[in-house]
Specification:
Strands 1, 2, 3, 4 and 5 form a five-stranded antiparallel beta sheet that branches. A two-stranded antiparallel ribbon has the order 6-7. It is an alpha+beta fold and 279 residues long. The relative contact order is 0.12. Strand 3 and strand 4 form a beta hairpin. The chain has three domains: 30 residues; 128 residues, no CATH class; 84 residues, no CATH class.
């Protein structure tokens, strides 16, 4: 009986030691890239700023944002512009924003059967940066995912969040820079003859695909993702500031004239009520 008691006691001690080791092991793991699942709402001033930006981009048809107005002749004021989520870097100098246009259902607008109740949500995203928290944002389109024709706001937003928090790291941009320490090159997925060309003489091939490398909720997203590495397409510029990979033979492709591939965004005259919030 005494021997059985000692054996049971030894088993309990072993289990406790095993659990303690597992807990210590987990606590020592690198948690620097654990996903964050809290969804962030914009500050009041940022909510107004990005909604107004979206309205102006729609009115001016910047980077295709104005299809409703340009193609379907829906008046700008028939659309409701909203800022849903805003995700800030730890220093609040970088941002990713989910924006929405609550607009007339196009089919009903076209056949003139539209009523005030015939509206749906169209989600898109913007990206921005600034040098100080007392400055407004420099804003660019983030053309990674777009959701259209959703009657239910929460359903659309849930799908959009899922995309950015779980699939963003897999999204690919074509870039110029090959030897970098961020993202993940996709050379293994290109045809074998291209792989051979890259390995034998990489100079003629200037464009290839690279993943963003991190999801929006990853803590390293703000410092290590492809989105925040300058020079991947043009020196001194982020990848979202340039429309496409810039090849060395671009001058020949465009009739001997250098092609300016930078994304053009307009100078918007924001209302004083918004501007004053950043001072």
């Amino acid at each position: 009986m005494r021997k059985s008691h000692n054996i049971n006691r030894s088993i309990r001690v072993f289990i406790i030691l095993l659990l303690s080791t597992a807990i210590i092991s987990l606590s020592c793991q690198d948690n620097s890239n654990n996903p964050v699942t809290n969804y962030s709402k914009p500050t009041y001033r940022d909510s107004l700023y990005f909604a107004y930006t979206l309205k102006e981009w729609t009115r001016l048809n910047i980077e295709g944002y104005g299809a409703e107005v340009l193609v379907y002749f829906i008046p700008v004021d028939k659309i409701i512009y909203e800022t849903f989520d805003a995700y800030y870097s730890p220093d609040s100098l970088r941002i990713v924003v989910f924006v929405s246009k609550f607009s007339p259902i196009i089919k009903k607008w076209e056949n003139k059967s539209w009523t005030e109740k015939d509206m749906d949500y169209n989600l898109n995203s913007m990206i921005g940066f600034r040098d100080s928290t007392n400055q407004p944002w420099v804003v660019y389109p983030l053309d990674i995912s777009m959701l259209t024709d959703f009657p239910n706001k929460e359903e659309a937003l849930a799908l959009y969040r899922h995309k950015y928090f779980n699939k963003l790291s897999e999204f690919m941009y074509n870039v110029n820079v090959v030897d970098t320490n961020y993202g993940k090159p996709y050379i293994d997925k290109v045809p074998i003859d291209i792989k051979k060309l890259l390995s034998d003489n990489p100079d003629p091939v200037k464009c290839y695909e690279r993943t963003i490398g991190f999801n929006l909720g990853d803590s390293l997203f703000w410092t290590r993702s492809l989105l925040w590495q300058k020079g991947s397409r043009l020196p001194g510029l982020y990848v979202f500031q340039v429309k496409n990979c810039v090849r060395s033979d671009e001058g020949e492709l465009w009739g001997g004239k250098p092609w300016d591939s930078r994304v053009k965004t307009p100078n918007i005259n924001y209302p004083d009520s918004i501007v004053q919030m950043y001072k």
